[in-house]
Amino acid sequence: MMMYIYLGILLLILVFVIRYLFTENKLLSQIDAALVLIPMLLRLFLIK
Amino acid sequence: MKFQPDQLKGNRITAIAVCTVALLCLVVLAREFLSMRKAEPIYPGPGVTRTAMLSDYFEGIKGTAGDTEIYILEGKKPGASILVLGGTHANEPSGLLSAVLLIENAVVEEGTLYVIPHTNNSGFTCTDPQEAAPMRFTIDTPTGPRTFRYGSRSTNPVHQWPDPELYLHVSSGQSLSGAETRNINRTYPGRPNGNFTEKVSYAVTTLIRQEGIDVTIDLHEAAPEYPTINALVAHENAMPLASMAMFNLAMEGMEISLEPSPQNLHGLTHRELGDHTNTWATLMETANPAQGRLRGKTDERLVVTGQDKFYQMAAKYGNLYVPFDERGHPISGRVSRHVTGIMQLAQAYNDLDLGKRIVITNVPTYEEMNQDIGRYLATPH
Asked: Does B6 touch chain A (CB under 8 A)?
């Protein structure tokens, strides 16, 4: 059960990061957000 | 004009571009990480009469990453039974290799030998965080290289998460740090309704009970600065057996210390399997510098050669519990210690004359394995 709550929180943060990536007008900040996406997606898909 | 990267403008098109690059990275990394879920091939030798799955003994792990193969080597004559647990900790590779060497070579004339090469199968699917450990290591055989996974001490967090603040070992009431909840060698005898790791250890305990295993040998490695090293640890019930084996090993030229299983340290095989089953529970440790805190570069070479200049320095200062010179502690030597220990425990069991025997043949000698274990691993195909 805790695992699903954790994944739900992760999904929520992921949505915020993607939203930030598409609304930010600095390229470096977009790159930062994209880098954060990688480990979050790896965990969301239960790969790492 | 000076280049100022923080002034570069972004827009929807750059957002899509960086997302695409991130997704490409994700695909490459995912393929790499997922490759650790594919088990290395093991080629059963002439002595393997059948295989079973650990879930045959406890349905609760069927179809999960905790289920794993059991190789069974039955003699023509019934007799005593020994269970060898390799890969309890997947970052202690001589346990896995010793199990593989037995599966691919040993022939049992009398009694039954059970071998589990990946006891914590989930631990082989990831590495330990912040250890910079290699994902694999290679052993050269006369007919080609064989690659094995170098995994984690604990269950993959993908299979059991989150860790609690404290891990309560239910049958004893002992509290440990939360991360130990994924260390299978702190969860014995296990629980059918416990967490993922406890279910796997429960399956091992059930196997021992159902098959009436006489002797259990759990194979480990430890850092050279850890006191219990090059050691045979035995439950008090197994002490007569272990002390006889220790003398036999000393006669073969292999120095090993005998340590009693601590009464108040719970969850370990040598304590709980001895307390909760009728097996004589033992555990062996060799020196693996790739696990130590004093090591230098952590790579495949260190895992295989066991050579490290920082450990040589530590030995000069008297900070280690094993001798350490430029020859290091190669994996061939570590495996030869484990396999010879298993053979001598079997011999000691027969010497005790308990009315049944186990006779294991076709296993190379300590000196032969010490030179190069690659010669005794099957041809990769």
From this structure: yes
**Token digits for B265?**
């340290």
B8, B10, B33 member nearest A47 (Cβ): B33
Residues B72, B113 contacting (CB under 8 angstroms): yes
| pLDDT at res. B170 | 94
Rounded distance between C-alpha atoms, residue B248 and residue B257, angstroms: 12
- On whether the CB atoms of residues B352 and B241 are closer than 8 A, the answer is yes
How big is the A-B interface in CB pairs under 8 Å? 67
Contact flag B33-A48 (C-beta cutoff 8 Å)? yes
* pLDDT reported for residue B1: 66
- pLDDT tens-digit series, residues B42-100: 999 999 999 999 999 999 999 999 999 999 999 999 999 999 999 999 999 999 999 99
Domain ranges of chain B: 40-376
- Cβ of B2 under 8 Å from any chain A Cβ? no
Contact B22 A35 (CB under 8 A): yes
In this structure, are residues B107 and B76 in contact, taking their beta carbons and an 8 Å threshold?
A: no
Q: Is residue B182 within 8 Å of B160, Cβ to Cβ?
A: yes
Cα B60 from Cα B196, distance rounded (Å) = 9
Is the pTM higher than 0.80? The answer reads yes
Which residue matches tokens 């923080």? B6
Mean pLDDT calculated for residue range B108-129: 97
Q: What is the pLDDT of residues B222-279, one digit of tens each?
A: 999 999 999 999 999 999 999 999 999 998 889 999 999 999 999 999 999 999 999 9
Within 10 angstroms of residue B134's Cβ, the number of other Cβ atoms is 18
Indicate the residue of A26, A33, A48 with minimum beta-carbon distance to B6. A26
Confidence check: pLDDT of B285 > 90: yes
- Name the nearest CA neighbour of B366 among B225, B220, B241, B256: B256
> In this structure, which topology does domain B40-376 adopt according to CATH?
Aminopeptidase (3.40.630)
Residues of A in contact with B14 (CB under 8 A): 27, 30
Chain A residue numbers touching B129 (CB-CB < 8 A): none
Provide, as residue numbers in chain B, all residues whose Cβ is less than 8 Å from the Cβ of A1: none
List C-alpha distances in Å: B309 to B93, B306, B313, B333, B371. Answer: 21, 10, 6, 18, 22
If you average pLDDT over residues B157-164, what whole number do you get?
92
The Cα–Cα gap between B58 and B207 comes to 8
For chain B positions 80-139, those within 8 Å of chain A (CB to CB) are 126
Structure tokens at B373: 């274990």
A29–chain B Cβ distance below 8 A for any pair: yes
